[in-house]
Design a protein that fits this description.
The structure holds two protein chains of two kinds. By secondary structure, chain A is an all-alpha fold. In chain A, 77% of the residues lie in helices and 1% in strands. Chain A has one domain (8-195). Chain B is α+β, with helices and mostly antiparallel strands. Chain B is built from four helices and three strands, in the order αβααββα. Chain B has a three-stranded antiparallel beta sheet. Classes of the chains: A mainly alpha, B alpha+beta.
Chain lengths: 196, 95
């Protein structure tokens, strides 16, 4: 842009185009949705199989979760730290900050629900699904990405349905919830991010 | 009619402020890419905006590479709002 005289119409155009640029950039590459979507999806299917086959200590497959946490922690650290002009964060949007708060709240809530599993009993998994729904529904609103909003809405419905479902089948409903509100929208988000 | 804020009534400076108003903070290289400007010209305009108190500039090092981060101030937001308000007088169809 050269320094030159501009008229009010041009001023208006500059403001519009700059604000559009900032808004159209998707702030998220979908990595966390895809990673956690598949990890929890596969884990819950495996857990379901161990329940059906009456394998002892099948719940131990859930110990993959802290490993997943460590992995995504390392991934995020390198994404932010590594000097690479393509990857390096050049701009911090408000969307990223809101998302950060949302997922911290989500993490604390998941931890609380799982920690209180003994008290919650069969309501545990429906509440977990409800939390999954909040995560993607709100993320979709912040990122203005419809598939996440729709996926989140579906998980709200699945959560209600799962309250009336026996424990074993609740595990399958967790997998379904991951599929519709994390895996599918996550891949769609990644495609959109890559194409911009 | 009210005169438009001369500090903002410039293609590049208005572009910078419009970008910064929609994000929390942005790096120099990002501003340069988005506004299609040269590093030299961008530095000069950023300095002018900083002297007016419209933006804050923070220089730091990230893995031994210098990094300049820019952020709009409350005064900058106010100035931008006033600019847009004044601009509307010019744009409204004349009777």
């Amino acid at each position: 842009m050269e320094e030159q005289n501009i008229n009010p119409e041009q001023s208006m155009q500059i403001i519009q185009s700059m604000i559009n640029r900032a808004q159209n950039n998707v702030a998220d590459n979908g990595f966390h949705f895809i990673f956690w979507g598949w990890l929890v999806f596969i884990t819950s299917i495996v857990f379901y199989v161990t329940l059906k086959m009456e394998i002892q200590n099948g719940w131990l497959v859930w110990s993959l979760m802290p490993l997943g946490g460590i992995f995504t922690g390392i991934y995020s650290y390198y994404q932010h730290r590594k000097y690479n002009p393509d990857v390096q964060k050049k701009v911090r949007t408000y969307a990223e900050i809101y998302l950060g708060y949302l997922w911290i709240a989500f993490g604390i809530s998941i931890f609380t629900v799982l920690f209180m599993m003994n008290k919650l009993g069969e309501a545990t998994y429906p509440l977990v699904i409800n939390l999954y729904a909040i995560g993607t529904f709100v993320s979709g609103g912040i990122l203005r990405f419809k598939p996440l909003i729709i996926g989140g809405a579906c998980s709200f419905a699945i959560a209600i349905f799962s309250f009336f479902t026996p424990f074993e089948n609740q595990v399958l409903l967790i997998a379904l919830s991951l599929l519709v509100s994390y895996i599918i929208p996550g891949h769609l988000l990644r495609n959109k991010f890559k194409s911009q | 009619m009210k005169e438009l804020d001369p500090l903002l009534h410039s293609q590049l400076r208005l572009g910078i402020i419009s970008l910064l108003i929609s994000v929390k903070e942005a790096e120099f290289t990002h501003l340069k890419d988005e506004t299609n400007s040269t590093a030299g010209n961008l530095s000069i305009q950023l300095q002018k905006l900083k002297e007016a108190g419209y933006i804050e500039i923070e220089k730091s090092f990230k893995d031994n590479y210098p990094q300049t981060t820019c952020k709009i101030t409350k005064l900058g937001i106010k100035a931008f709002e006033n600019y847009v308000k004044d601009l509307q007088q010019y744009i409204k169809p004349k009777k």
